[in-house]
Design goal:
two-stranded antiparallel sheet, Hypothetical protein af1432, mainly alpha, 28 helices
Length: about 725
C-alpha cells in the first residue's frame, strides 16, 4: 500500500493529466451523435465511387428540402386569407348618411326660403332641385350598399405575401365562407373614389347639375368604414393544414431494387433517392441497431482521436503535458467545440456553419504555436464532422479556413489583426464553398445561397476571439503578444523608476533588449517575450543602484568601503529584489523567469577572484554564486548571453571586429563551460548563429572597423 501511495505521489502530475484526458474523452463520447450514420459518402453531379447499391429494404422517396420549400411557398402565395363580414356596419353607416342628408336638406330649404321672397319663385326653385337632389340621394345609397355588400377592408399588411396580394379571399358570412375575388373588395380610399366617380358620371350624363356638389359637401368619407376584418386565427389554422397536407414523398423503392451502379453519375433523381435511403437508414438504426455496439463504436472513434492528440503532445510538445493549465485549456476548448456543435445539431433552425470553429486555432496559436494550433483544430473538426450533414465538405471548409486564419495571425500586436483574420476566414469559407458547390452542382442556380449568410454570421462571431484572449489570459495565466507589447512600453511604472533612479541600468537594459530581440528574430522564438524580459531583467538594481558600475558617476565606487562578501551580497541580491518587485507589480511569471535566470548559477567573477586571491583555498562557491536557476528556454538563454556581452563590451579599450569577436566567444564559451544552457532548448547551431548576430550588432553600435596595416613611409 505504501508503494502505491509513493508511486501516486511521485507521478501525481502525469496521473492528473491522464485524468483530464479521461474526463474529456467521456464528455465528448457522451455528446457524440447517438444515432448511427450512413456508410456511403456521395455528392450531386459526381460519380458513385462505391459498389453497386441495392435497396436493403422498402423505403419512400422523400422530396428534397428545396422542393418542399418551393411547394410550401406556392401554397402560401396561392392561399386565400379569411375575413369576417360585419353586415351591421354598412346598415349603420347608410342610416347615418340618410339622417345627415335630411338634416342638411332641411337647412338648405330654409336658406332658400329666406332668399326668395316671392312664394311662386321659391316653389318653382324647390320643385326644380328637389327631384334632382333626391335622385342623387338614392344613387348614393345604392353605391354605398354596393361597396358594403362587396366589403371594405382596412389594412393589407397582415395577409399580403411578399408584396403580392391574394387573387381571392374567403369572406365569412353567417359562419359560412364564400370565395370572392380580391379585385372586387374595396379599401377605404377605393370605396370613396367609387362613390365620387359614380356621382360625377351621373352628372356628365346630364341627369344632375350642381346638386352633385351638395352631396359631396356631406363628406361621404365620414360614412365609409371597414366591414371586413382579417381573421388571423382562422387563416393561420387553414394555412397550416394546407402546409401539413403537402406530401413529403414521391414514390417508393422496393427491397432488392438497384438504386445506383458504380461509376454512375449522381444526378438530381439519384441524389433524391440516396438522400431518402440515408434518412430511412438512420431512422431504422434507432429501432434495429444494437445500442451497445453503437456506443462502443463511437467510444472507439473518440478514444483514438484523443489518443493521437496525447501522443502528438508527448512527442512534439511535451512541455504542454507538463503543465496542468496548458493541458486543461486545450482539452476544454475541444470539449466546448463539441458541446456547441451538439447544441446546434439539436436545434434544427441553426446551421453548423454558424459556429466559429476557427476561434480554436486562433486562441491556440495566440498562447502556444501555429503547428499545435493546426493539429488541435484538425482533431476537433474530425470529431465534429460527425455532426455535419456533409462531413467531407465540412472538414474541407474548416481545415482551409483554419490554415488561412493561422497564417493571417502570425503574431497578435494589433486589434486589426483579429479583424483581418476573421475576414480571411470568411473569404476562404465563401470561395471554397462556392468552388465545392459549382463542382458538385455544375449550376450556379442550384447553390444554397443561404449558407453564405451563415458564413457571414460566423465571421462576426469570430471577432469574439479578441476579448476571449484577455479572459483566458487572466483565467489560465497565459501571456499574449498584446500583453507583452503593453509591458514593453517604457512608460510602465517599473521602467520609469528604472530610468529615473538607475539611468545607466535602464540604458543597459534597452541595449540588451535590442541585442536579444535581433537574435531571437533570426534564430526563432518569441521576439516580444524576450524584449519584455530584457527590459525588466535588472529591475532589482533599483534596490541599490549606486553599487552597479553603469550607475556610478564621477568615479565614486561605494564598493571600496565594504568587504568583498558584502559587495557580492549586494550584487547577488539584485536578483532576489527583482523577483520581489516583479511579483509586487503583478508581472507575469514568464517575465519573472528572465529576472531569475539572467545570471544562472554563475558568480560575480570580479569579486570572487579578488576574494580567492586573498583567501586561497576558501570554500565560498555557493556563497559567491547567483541563486539561479539556469536558463530553461531559448529566450532566457539568449538574454543571458546578451546581458553579459553588452555589459562586458563597455569595458573594451578598442572596438575592433577582432576584439568584439574575441569577447563574444570568451563570454559564451565560459557560459557553456559552466553548463548554463544545458536546460534550455537551444542548439549549438543556434548558439553559433547568435554569436554572428551579436558581432554584427555590436559592430553597428560601436562602429568597429577593420584595422588596416600602416603604410610604409
Amino acid at each position: 500500500m505504501k508503494k502505491i501511495i509513493n508511486w501516486i505521489t511521485n507521478n501525481f502530475e502525469q496521473i492528473y493529466i491522464v485524468f483530464l484526458f479521461a474526463i474529456s474523452f467521456l464528455i465528448v463520447a457522451y455528446l457524440f451523435p447517438g444515432e448511427g450514420n450512413f456508410r456511403y459518402e456521395f455528392q450531386k453531379g459526381q460519380p458513385w465511387l462505391h459498389e453497386d447499391l441495392m435497396a436493403p429494404f422498402d423505403f419512400a422517396i422523400y422530396k428534397l428540402e428545396d422542393d418542399l420549400a418551393k411547394e410550401r411557398e406556392d401554397v402560401r402565395k396561392s392561399f386565400k386569407p379569411y375575413f369576417n363580414y360585419k353586415e351591421e356596419i354598412g346598415k349603420e353607416e347608410i342610416n347615418a348618411f340618410e339622417k345627415e342628408f335630411k338634416k342638411r336638406w332641411d337647412s338648405y330649404l330654409i336658406e332658400k326660403k329666406e332668399a326668395f321672397s316671392n312664394p311662386l319663385l321659391r316653389k318653382k326653385f324647390v320643385r326644380y332641385n328637389a327631384d334632382s337632389v333626391w335622385m342623387l340621394f338614392h344613387l348614393t345609397k345604392k353605391l354605398m350598399k354596393h361597396i358594403y355588400s362587396n366589403g371594405i377592408i382596412e389594412f393589407e399588411e397582415d395577409y399580403v405575401v411578399e408584396n403580392q396580394k391574394p387573387f381571392a379571399i374567403e369572406i365569412i358570412k353567417n359562419k359560412v365562407a364564400h370565395e370572392t375575388e380580391y379585385s372586387k373588395i374595396y379599401t377605404l380610399k377605393s370605396a370613396y373614389l367609387y362613390i365620387i366617380e359614380g356621382l360625377h358620371a351621373y352628372k356628365k350624363e346630364g341627369k344632375a347639375n350642381q346638386n352633385v356638389d351638395f352631396i359631396e359637401n356631406l363628406h361621404i368619407n365620414k360614412f365609409i368604414e371597414p366591414n371586413l376584418f382579417y381573421d388571423k386565427e382562422t387563416s393561420e389554422k387553414v394555412l397550416n393544414e394546407e402546409l401539413n397536407s403537402i406530401s413529403l414523398t414521391r414514390g417508393i423503392v422496393h427491397q432488392g431494387e438497384r438504386i445506383i451502379s458504380k461509376g454512375e453519375v449522381v444526378d438530381e433523381d439519384k441524389y433524391r433517392v440516396l438522400e431518402s435511403l440515408r434518412s430511412a437508414y438512420v431512422s431504422s438504426l434507432k429501432t434495429t441497431a444494437n445500442r451497445s455496439l453503437l456506443i462502443f463504436g463511437r467510444m472507439i472513434i473518440v478514444f483514438f482521436s484523443f489518443l493521437i492528440l496525447y501522443l502528438f503532445l508527448l512527442r512534439f510538445r511535451s512541455h504542454v503535458l507538463e503543465s496542468r493549465r496548458k493541458t486543461l485549456f486545450i482539452l476544454m476548448m475541444i470539449v466546448a467545440s463539441v458541446a456547441v456543435s451538439k447544441i446546434v445539431h439539436d436545434i434544427s433552425v441553426l446551421n453548423i456553419y454558424i459556429i466559429p470553429f476557427v476561434i480554436l486555432p486562433l486562441l491556440i496559436n495566440t498562447f502556444y504555436d501555429s503547428r499545435l494550433a493546426l493539429f488541435i483544430h484538425f482533431v476537433t473538426i474530425i470529431i465534429v464532422a460527425f455532426f455535419a450533414p456533409n462531413s467531407f465538405e465540412f472538414v474541407l471548409l474548416q481545415f482551409i479556413a483554419g490554415i488561412v486564419s493561422i497564417i493571417g495571425l502570425k503574431s497578435i500586436q494589433k486589434r486589426s489583426q483579429f479583424v483581418n483574420s476573421a475576414m480571411l476566414a470568411v473569404l476562404s469559407y465563401l470561395f471554397v464553398y462556392f468552388g465545392v458547390s459549382i463542382y458538385q452542382e455544375g449550376n450556379i442556380n442550384s447553390i444554397n445561397w443561404v449558407n453564405f449568410a451563415w458564413f457571414a454570421g460566423n465571421g462576426v462571431l469570430l471577432l469574439l476571439s479578441y476579448p476571449l484572449v484577455y479572459v483566458f489570459e487572466r483565467i489560465f495565466k497565459f501571456l499574449s503578444d498584446m500583453t507583452l507589447l503593453e509591458l514593453s512600453d517604457t512608460n510602465q511604472s517599473l521602467l520609469r523608476q528604472l530610468a529615473e533612479k538607475a539611468p545607466g541600468t535602464f540604458q543597459h537594459s534597452l541595449q540588451v533588449a535590442n541585442l536579444a530581440e535581433e537574435v531571437v528574430r533570426q534564430i526563432g522564438g518569441n521576439v516580444s517575450l524576450v524584449r519584455a524580459g530584457a527590459l525588466y531583467h535588472d529591475i532589482g538594481k533599483l534596490s541599490a543602484p549606486q553599487y552597479f558600475t553603469e550607475n556610478q558617476l564621477g568615479g565614486v565606487n561605494p564598493h571600496k568601503n565594504i568587504s568583498y562578501r558584502e559587495s557580492v551580497e549586494i550584487i547577488v541580491n539584485h536578483v532576489h529584489a527583482g523577483v520581489e518587485m516583479a511579483k509586487k507589480a503583478n508581472l507575469p511569471d514568464k517575465i519573472i523567469d528572465f529576472i531569475r535566470t539572467h545570471h544562472g548559477t554563475t558568480k560575480p567573477e570580479y569579486f570572487y577572484r579578488l576574494y580567492m586571491k586573498e583567501n586561497p583555498g576558501a570554500d565560498v562557491e555557493e556563497e559567491f554564486s547567483y541563486p539561479g536557476p539556469k536558463p530553461f528556454t531559448k529566450e532566457t538563454a539568449i538574454l543571458m548571453m546578451a546581458d553579459s556581452i553588452e555589459a562586458a563590451s563597455r569595458s573594451l579599450k578598442k572596438y575592433t571586429k577582432q576584439a568584439l569577436e574575441d569577447l563574444i566567444n570568451a563570454i559564451i564559451g565560459f557560459q557553456m563551460k559552466e553548463e548554463q544552457f544545458n536546460n534550455a532548448d537551444i542548439t549549438f547551431m543556434e548558439i553559433s548563429k547568435a554569436k554572428e548576430i551579436f558581432l554584427a550588432k555590436l559592430q553597428n553600435i560601436y562602429h568597429a572597423r577593420i584595422e588596416y596595416p600602416e603604410e610604409n613611409k
